[in-house]
Amino acid sequence: MFIGHPAAGYVWTRFLLKKGVLNGSAGIEYHACLLLGLISSVLPDFDLLYFFFIDFKKHTHHTFLPHIPAFWVIIAIISMLLCIIFKNRQLKKVSLIIISNVVIHLLLDTISGGIYWLYPFSGQECTVFEIRTKYDMWVLNYFLHWSFVGEVILVMAGIFVFFRKKAAVYPFLKMCVTGNKTMYCLNQIKDISRNEFFQNKTF
Ligand SMILES: [Zn+2]
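That is the input. Now the predicted structure with zinc ion docked in place:
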């Protein structure tokens, strides 16, 4: 998956904020949570830097630690223990945002990329749809696969949620509705003035 990750991360973090799971974060904290959610949604893909510049594409980047669920289970356990020991509200929020977004990332990668969910107990790669290599440019194999429609839907959902939040949208819609009502009233007045009764009436 490519473009769907940040969109999914945005929608999910907005959901957490809306449901008050993040203890009513507001103002700068609200936006910081959203930013962290966006970064966390693509966090495992930071291993692409290693893939391109150190590994020189020798191994698929889904075999690297950031894409191994067992690694994140260890991180989750450590952060949970730290939250219990220090009873820190902010640490709890940060852990929840990062871990939940990473889990969503790995689930989405399972659809068409393949994730080693059972590692270290099994080296079996888990995937829903296998994408075969048809084009030399590897990225085209994903962009031109039918499953890419799912990514487009995710992006559209992200755009929808983003604009629904914008306060500017509501006054604009209100203005449209008011304008529409005004036009309707003017038309009614025009129709009444054209009415035969009023045309022939002499006052
Ligand atoms: Zn990934």
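The chain has a mean pLDDT of 85.
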